[in-house]
Design goal:
This protein folds into 2 domains: 153 residues, Rossmann fold (3-Layer(aba) Sandwich), CATH 3.40.50; 230 residues, NAD(P)-binding Rossmann-like Domain (Rossmann fold). It contains 15 helices and 13 strands. The strands form 2 sheets. The chain has a 7-stranded parallel sheet with strand order 9-8-7-10-11-12-13, sandwiched between helices. Helix 7 crosses helix 15, helix 9 runs parallel beside helix 10 and helix 10 runs parallel beside helix 12. The longest helix has 24 residues.
Length: 442
Amino acid sequence: MSDRYQAFTKSPIGKLLVKNLGLPDPVALDRWTEGAPLVDGTVVVGGAGRLELVTALDRLGIANTGEKVDGQKYKGLVFDATSFTSSADLVALQEFFTPLLRSLEKCSRIVVLGTPPEQVEGGERVAQRALEGFTRSLGKELGRGSTSQLVYVAKGAEAAIDSTLAFLLSPKSAYVSGQVVRIGTQGTKKAAAVKDLARPLAGKIAIVTGASRGIGEQIARVLHRDGATVLGIDVPQAASELQAVMKELNGDSLTLDITHADAPQRIAHYVKENHGGIDIVVHNAGITRDKKLANMAEDRWSSVIAVNLTAPELITRELLEQGAINKNGRIIGVASIAGIAGNVGQTNYAASKAGVIGFVDSLAGELKDGITINAVAPGFIITAMTAAVPFATREVGQRLNAMQQGGLPVDVAETIAWYASPGSTAVNGNVVRVCGQMMLGA
């Protein structure tokens, strides 16, 4: 699916109307391609906290400097604010960023790192919490496809930041902005070694439900690109499409209805018998049955809850109880911006997706052996399904974010691949929105 309005704005008449009427002018976002560097340019590093940012960037092969050179353009700015202990320290943000913002290239990246406010007290807690307002607001100011993020790093988790920096500074995070990520706040504070940065999932087995098309298919493709063997799961009606995708990816397929009573046991048995266990579980399968609550039939409600929420819960519990998820495994849910901000006519869907977030919250503290659980919450993602949305509604949905455009399925997939990395062991209990930073509601 393409964004016809975005293409129109690049035409001669489109450029004229954008300029004279102040219409949205979405920038073509940089997205990562295989073989490209993580960051195509230089990152400026600032701040004086407890993190060894230069060392981390050097490990990732990201060019960096601590000084601004007049006339030079930069692809990113990274600031260590972990030393902030009072509101007076916040002036350092203005002193660092203001002289540099006009030197940024398009689709640049800003990352501020701090200490989780809930782990400190007094003035330090005040200063650290203030970072969230700063980064969210900055994300809405930047324009030109640029993004701004906040990463809270727990004390003791300083060496576990590499995978998150790699994701947030690279084009892989094209449609992620204004987000807050916590590292080391639940579970382990360590990061497993990543032997091959180009194929971090080599040797891993990944389940992806709803893998025959759309976002699920793209998740399977990105995980395969990163080295994983993918077991795609979908309903029997999608068997031919699922098998075609899995054949192309040298993967495996299993057709069943995940809401059937015996589906969790069948999946657990299959992965143990055929793969010896699983490393990554992506609960992507989902449905909508939209209707205002006053007009909603019981089957519309129950079917959405069953597919989107109950099935992932039961499957995850069964896999854990049978020991089918390997050490340092990953459980990843697909929530939605609807579960955070709500949508008219989607009380069932929003409830199910908010429940996915609740599932992450409830399980994150229970997991052992380096297993993590996180979720993505997509906003307006351009798919065949959203193409059927009425034109006016679709246009509003695409423009009311800091990117002024809809995202692509690959944007969701890249976020999931970051969670799935062995280097993300300390990333647990997070919900990251892939929404271009919605301007209203969330």
